[in-house]
């Protein structure tokens, strides 16, 4: 390395050029181990170039069969399934919000001041937060059978712990001044919550619920593939018979519906902000 270039590099990163040989050896060993782990995972996952090329070739053929999209004469049935998907998402979100509200109140530090109880309750919610809606749907479809009921309950069970955590944090972050002002006027505890806390909490909780409605509408389509009804059930049925033109129509319709709901929800959330 030329002396001038070395001096410039030394001025920019002196620690890198003056690092002891033990540190450089350690970094080299870590790099080798990381590369070995990456290669090992690629072998274990069978990420062979030949398999990837074959998969992409088949995917290209499927995409070609999607043009042009077609309803297959089942437009009414598909629209009904789309409406059922939205109904699943809406019902699951409403049930989850209703159940999460009292849980969020209990989980708020400003309401439950006992540190041990608060910690135990939060960890209890964390356990259920680790179970996604798809897993709940697989269990509930086995218990209740095929149909949207299992999807509604699965969405609700997956959302309750998440909304409860967000609601409790919204309560904890509320400005105490309006609450103290109402309390100092001699108001009852119920009036304190009604006039001091609710005006701050309600817009935040509503915004979070609308955001979960967006996600549930997207997730409801996936739940249908495992038998929980809705548009996903129709999509899975057509994939099985290789009717990719109808698959394309369902996907496009679903994308438009999701975009429309997201736009409406975002507008409502912006008004609440």
């Amino acid at each position: 390395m030329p002396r001038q270039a070395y001096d410039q590099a030394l001025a920019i990163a002196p620690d890198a050029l003056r690092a002891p040989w033990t540190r450089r050896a350690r970094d080299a060993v870590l790099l080798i181990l990381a590369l070995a782990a990456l290669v090992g995972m690629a072998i274990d996952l069978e990420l062979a170039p030949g398999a990837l090329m074959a998969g992409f070739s088949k995917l290209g053929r499927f995409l070609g069969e999607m043009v042009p999209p077609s309803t297959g004469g089942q437009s009414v049935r598909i629209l009904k399934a789309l409406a059922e998907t939205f109904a699943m998402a809406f019902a699951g979100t409403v049930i989850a919000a209703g159940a999460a509200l009292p849980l969020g109140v209990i989980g708020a530090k400003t309401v439950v001041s006992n540190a041990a109880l608060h910690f135990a309750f939060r960890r209890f919610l964390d356990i259920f937060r680790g179970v996604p809606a798809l897993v709940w749907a697989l269990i509930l479809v086995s218990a209740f059978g095929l149909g949207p009921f299992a999807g509604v309950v699965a969405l609700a069970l997956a959302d309750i712990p998440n909304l409860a955590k967000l609601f409790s944090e919204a309560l904890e972050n509320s400005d105490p001044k309006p609450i103290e002002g109402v309390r100092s006027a001699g108001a009852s505890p119920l009036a304190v919550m009604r006039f001091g806390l609710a005006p701050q909490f309600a817009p935040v909780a509503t915004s979070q619920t609308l955001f979960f409605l967006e996600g549930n509408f997207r997730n409801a389509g996936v739940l249908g593939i495992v038998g929980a009804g809705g548009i996903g059930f129709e999509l899975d049925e057509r994939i099985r018979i290789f009717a990719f033109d109808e698959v394309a129509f369902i996907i496009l319709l679903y994308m438009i519906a999701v975009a429309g709901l997201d736009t409406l929800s975002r507008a409502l959330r912006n008004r609440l902000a």
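DSSP finds twelve helices and no strands in the chain. The chain has two domains: 3-65, 75-272.
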